[in-house]
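Listing S7. Sequence submitted for prediction.
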Amino acid sequence: MNNSQPGRYEICVVGCLTESWSDWFDGAIRYDERRDETVIEGQFVDQAALFGILTKIHYLNLTLVAVKRLSVQKK
């Protein structure tokens, strides 16, 4: 994988973030009440953009559960 390729990711954190956070995280947000997890799904232009989102999660002191790559865009 080339680190400069865009990709779609799903990032799970513990707790409830409302949809009002979606602009700040550059993605769609949905809350899974059953698991008490928020899922952030978005298209990130490269690994640096993904790392930026993970840094925001760290600064908010959120507990990261999982990061999953959903698809690879081919040129």
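Caption to Listing S7: primary sequence and predicted structure tokens for the chain studied. The chain has a mean pLDDT of 88. Residues 7-72 form a domain with the Alpha-Beta Plaits fold (CATH 3.30.70.2380).
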